[in-house]
Specification:
The structure holds 2 protein chains of 2 kinds. Chain A is an alpha/beta fold. Chain A is built from 8 helices and 12 strands. Classes of the chains: A alpha/beta, B alpha/beta. Bound molecules: adenosine-5'-diphosphate and magnesium ion.
C-alpha cells in the first residue's frame, strides 16, 4: 500500500498549440495535503484541467499515474468515478438542473462504479442533511439549479459541499479561496479540514498564502512558468508571502 | 475519448425503435387525387350525401390554393398525385367490429408500440382509439365511457352513429377553406377520433388516440373532433409513430376542439413520427392544423405538445378565446436533431372580455436541426382586459443547428396586456465537463440539462406520459454531442 496516490512525471501540456506546462514533477501520497502556489498565468489551472481530463488540453510529454493507473488514458467521468474531484476555480451554472438531483446522480454514478447500491431519494436526503452542517450551506441552495444565481461565495461553498458528499480520494481545489471574505474562508477551510482522512489527499491550488493559515499543508510547491521551481514545507508559503514570487524567482533563476 | 464516441455512435444506430412495418392485406385506393377518389373514400365509409358534398366542396376549394411558402422549412415539392389517399387493413367480416375480429397482426403491432388493446392488458385509466393508416382498428373502454354518456369512437363511426353532432360541429373551428393542408384534409380525411362529453360530466379517464402510419406511399389524413358541453372536462392524448422509409410521407391532420361554458379540454400530443435518418433521408411531413374554440364563458383549452419526430413539423395548435373569461394555454417542447425542421407555435386570438392566454415554448435544436417558433397573439377590439404571457426559450446543442423566433403581436384594445420573453442558450462544453467531472457521462448530462429546460412543459403532461416523453427526448437527442 505504499504506492503514491498521484505521480506526475515530467508533464508537458498545452492548449491550442501553446505550451503551458513545461515539465511538472510532483508526488502525492494518501493522507497528505499539498499546496501549489504560483503567480497568475503560471499554469495552476491548466495543471488542474489536465488532471481532470478537460477536452482541448494536449499532453505532449510525460505521464501521470493515479493509484498506479494511467490517469491520462481515462475519460473525465471515469476519473471522477475513480475518486478524482476538482473544485472549480469558476464553478459552472447549469440552469434548470436541480442541485440535489444533480448531486444524487453524481453520487450514484460513483457508487455504481464501486459496485455499491444506488441510494434512493430518502437515503440521499439524510446524507445531504448531515453534510450540509459541515459547510453551513443554506438549505435553499439545494433546491435551486446548479450554481444558478449563486453568489461567488455560495458557489465555492457548493463545490466543497459536493466534495463532502462525493468523498473523493484526491481532491483538487483550484483557488477555492478567491472571492471569499474572511468568514466564508474560515467556513470553507474548516470544511476541507474535516474532510481530511488518512486514505485521501488534498491538492490545494492558491495564489495567496492567506488560505494556508487555515488549511495547513504538509508540502508547498511553487509553480512558475509551467514548472515546479521550488518545493518545501509549510514555511515556504510564509517565505513567499514575505518576499513575493518575483524575488524568489530572481533568486532561484540566478545561476549559482 | 474513444469509448465514449463508440457508445454514442452505437446509440445513434439504434435510434428509432418504432420503424418496423406490419405486413397485412390491405384494401387501398389507387394513387392520385380527383373527385372519383373522394367519392370512393366516402362510399367506403358509407357516408351520407351531405358529407360527400362537403368533401367535394373542400376539394374544389383546395384546387384554387397554393402550398404555403412562408414557412422557414425546405423540402422537395410534394407530388399530390403520387399519394395513396385510402389504405385500410382488410376486415375479416362486415359485422360490428369487436376486438376478437381485429387481425391479430394489428393487435401485435400495437403491443410492440407499447399500446396493449386487449382487455386485461390495457393501460389502466386510459381509453385508446387505435388508428392504423386510414382506419380506426379498435377503441377500448367504450362501455365504461358510454355509461356516463361519453362518446369516444372513431370518426367514421361517429358519422354513422351521431350524424347530427358531427354535422353541427365539423368545420366549425377549422372550416374547409382554412388553409391549403386543412382543405386537403377536409377533402380526403379518412379516420380519426371523435369525443363528446355531455353537460356536467368529468371524463373519468384519459382518452387517447394512437396513430400509426404503416403502408408505403400513403398519406395519413385524420380528423379529430372533441366537443365538451357545459361544465364538461376531458383530458385527451395522442401519440404517433411510423415505419422507417427513405421516401417522405405526408401527414396532414385537422383537430378541432370546442369548449362550451365552463368546459375544459386538455389536449396533449407526443409526436414521434419517423424523423428521417441522420442524413435527412425519409421521414414524415407533419402538416397539421389544430385549433380550439373556447366558445363558452369561463371555458379553458390547454394544448401540450412534445414534438420529437417528423422530418418537417408545421403546426400551430391555437385557441380562439371567444367566451368571456376563457383561458387558452400552449405548452410546447419541439426537438430537431440531424436534419429535422420544425416551424411550430400557436395563435391566441382574444375576442371575449377578460380572456387570458399563456404560451410556453421550448425549442431544442441539435445536429443540423432547424427550429422555429412562430406565434401570433391577437387582441381584438372587444377583448377588454385581455392578458397574454409568452415565453419562448431555445436551447442549442452544437454549432450547426439553428433556432429562430417569430412572434407576431396585434393588439387592438388598450386595456389589454401582452408580455413576451425570449431566451436562447447553448449547452456549453464547460457545462458538460462540469457534469463529467462529477462522474456523469456526456449523454446523461445532455439529457439532464434538456429535461431541466423542458420541465415547465413536462409538468403539464398527464403523469403516465411525462415519463415517456422524457425518455423519448433522450432517445431523440442521442448522438447529438460526440
Ligand atoms: N484555453 C486557453 N487558451 C489559450 N491560452 C490559455 C488557455 N487557458 C490558459 N491559457 C494560458 O495559459 C497560461 C496559464 O493559465 P492558467 O493555467 O489559467 O494559469 P493560473 O491558473 O496559474 O493563473 C496563461 O498564460 C493563460 O493565458
Ligand atoms: Mg487559475
Amino acid at each position: 500500500m505504499n504506492q503514491p496516490m498521484l505521480e506526475i512525471k515530467n508533464l508537458h501540456a498545452g492548449v491550442e498549440g501553446k505550451q503551458i506546462l513545461k515539465g511538472v514533477d510532483l508526488t502525492i501520497n494518501a493522507g497528505e495535503v499539498h499546496a501549489v502556489m504560483g503567480p497568475n498565468g503560471s499554469g495552476k489551472s491548466t495543471l488542474a484541467a489536465v488532471l481532470a481530463g478537460r477536452e482541448g488540453y494536449e499532453v505532449t510529454e510525460g505521464q501521470v499515474l493515479y493509484c498506479g493507473k494511467d490517469l491520462l488514458e481515462m475519460d473525465p467521468e471515469e476519473r471522477a468515478r475513480e475518486g478524482v474531484f476538482l473544485a472549480f476555480q469558476y464553478p459552472v451554472e447549469i440552469p434548470g438542473v436541480n442541485t440535489t438531483y444533480f448531486l444524487k446522480a453524481a453520487l450514484n454514478e460513483i457508487r455504481k462504479h464501486k459496485g455499491e447500491s444506488e441510494l434512493d431519494a430518502m437515503e440521499f436526503l439524510s446524507l445531504v442533511k448531515e453534510k450540509m452542517k459541515i459547510l453551513h450551506l443554506p438549505e435553499d441552495c439545494l433546491k435551486r439549479s446548479v450554481n444558478d444565481g449563486f453568489s461567488g461565495g455560495e458557489k465555492k461553498r457548493n463545490e466543497i459541499f459536493q466534495m463532502a458528499v462525493l468523498e473523493p480520494k484526491l481532491a483538487i481545489l483550484d483557488e477555492t479561496d478567491s472571492g471569499l471574505d474572511i468568514d466564508a474562508l474560515k467556513v470553507v477551510s474548516e470544511g476541507v479540514n474535516k474532510l481530511k482522512r488518512l486514505d485521501n489527499a488534498q491538492f490545494v491550488i492558491t495564489h495567496y498564502q492567506r488560505l494556508l493559515n487555515y488549511i495547513i499543508p504538509d508540502y508547498v510547491h511553487v509553480l512558475f512558468d509551467g514548472r515546479v521551481v521550488k518545493s518545501g514545507g509549510k514555511e515556504l508559503a510564509l517565505e513567499l508571502e514575505e518576499r513575493g514570487y518575483e524575488s524568489l524567482m530572481s533568486h532561484e533563476l540566478q545561476p549559482a | 475519448m474513444s469509448t465514449a464516441t463508440e457508445t454514442i455512435e452505437g446509440l445513434v444506430r439504434q435510434e428509432y425503435k418504432y420503424g418496423f412495418y406490419t405486413d397485412v392485406e390491405v384494401d387501398a385506393a389507387p394513387p392520385g387525387l380527383n373527385e372519383d377518389i373522394i367519392r370512393l373514400i366516402s362510399r367506403k365509409k358509407n357516408e351520407p350525401d351531405w358529407l360527400t358534398e362537403w368533401r367535394l366542396k373542400a376539394y374544389r376549394h383546395w384546387l384554387t390554393l397554393k402550398e404555403p411558402t412562408w414557412l422557414k422549412v425546405r423540402h422537395e415539392p410534394i407530388d399530390y398525385q403520387s399519394i395513396v389517399y385510402y389504405s385500410a387493413p382488410k376486415k375479416k367480416s362486415d359485422g360490428p367490429r369487436s376486438l376478437e375480429e381485429v387481425d391479430p397482426k394489428l393487435i401485435e403491432t400495437y403491443e410492440k408500440l407499447g399500446i396493449p388493446l386487449k382487455e386485461r392488458e390495457r393501460l389502466a385509466g386510459v381509453a385508446v382509439d387505435a388508428v392504423f393508416d386510414s382506419v380506426s382498428v379498435a377503441t377500448t373502454f367504450r362501455e365504461t365511457l358510454a355509461a356516463k354518456g361519453i362518446v369516444f369512437c372513431s370518426f367514421s363511426e361517429a358519422v354513422r352513429e351521431h350524424p347530427d353532432l358531427v354535422r353541427k360541429y365539423l368545420g366549425m373551428v377549422v372550416p374547409y377553406t382554412d388553409n391549403f393542408f386543412a382543405s386537403l384534409n377536409s377533402a380526403v380525411f379518412t379516420d380519426g377520433s371523435f369525443c363528446y362529453i355531455p353537460k356536467g360530466v368529468r371524463c373519468p379517464m384519459e382518452l387517447s388516440t394512437y396513430f400509426r402510419i404503416n403502408a408505403a406511399n400513403t398519406g395519413q389524413f385524420e380528423r379529430t373532433l372533441i366537443v365538451a358541453e357545459e361544465g364538461a372536462h376531458v383530458s385527451y392524448l395522442e401519440g404517433c409513430t411510423a415505419p422507417m422509409r427513405d421516401e417522405n410521407q405526408l401527414h396532414a391532420a385537422v383537430v378541432e376542439l370546442i369548449a362550451l361554458d365552463r368546459a375544459e379540454i386538455k389536449y396533449s400530443t407526443v409526436q414521434n413520427w419517423y424523423p428521417g435518418d441522420e442524413n435527412g433521408r425519409g421521414g414524415i411531413y407533419n402538416f397539421v392544423t389544430k385549433r380550439g374554440l373556447c366558445k363558452g364563458r369561463n371555458s379553458k383549452i390547454s394544448w401540450t405538445q412534445v414534438e420529437t419526430g417528423s422530418a418537417i413539423t408545421w403546426k400551430y395548435p391555437s385557441c380562439v378565446l371567444q367566451g368571456e373569461n376563457s383561458v387558452g394555454e400552449f405548452y410546447s417542447v419541439a426537438v430537431t436533431n440531424n436534419y429535422q425542421q420544425a416551424d411550430t407555435g400557436t395563435k391566441m386570438v382574444h375576442i371575449g372580455k377578460n380572456t387570458r392566454s399563456t404560451i410556453i415554448s421550448k425549442g431544442i435544436a441539435a445536429g443540423h436541426g432547424q427550429n422555429s417558433y412562430r406565434g401570433l397573439v391577437q387582441v381584438r377590439p372587444g377583448a377588454m382586459n385581455a392578458r397574454n404571457f409568452s415565453q419562448c426559450d431555445s436551447l442549442l446543442i452544437g454549432n450547426k443547428c439553428g433556432a429562430h423566433t417569430f412572434p407576431y403581436i396585434e393588439v387592438k384594445n388598450k386595456t389589454s396586456s401582452v408580455e413576451h420573453e425570449a431566451t436562447t442558450s447553448k449547452i456549453g462544453e464547460d457545462q458538460i465537463f462540469y457534469c463529467n467531472q462529477r462522474g456523469i457521462a456526456t449523454q446523461d448530462a445532455v439529457n439532464m440539462i434538456v429535461n431541466g429546460f423542458c420541465k415547465e412543459v413536462f409538468k403539464e403532461l398527464p403523469m403516465e406520459f411525462a415519463v415517456e416523453a422524457q425518455k423519448l427526448l433522450g432517445v431523440s437527442l442521442e448522438g447529438s454531442v460526440g
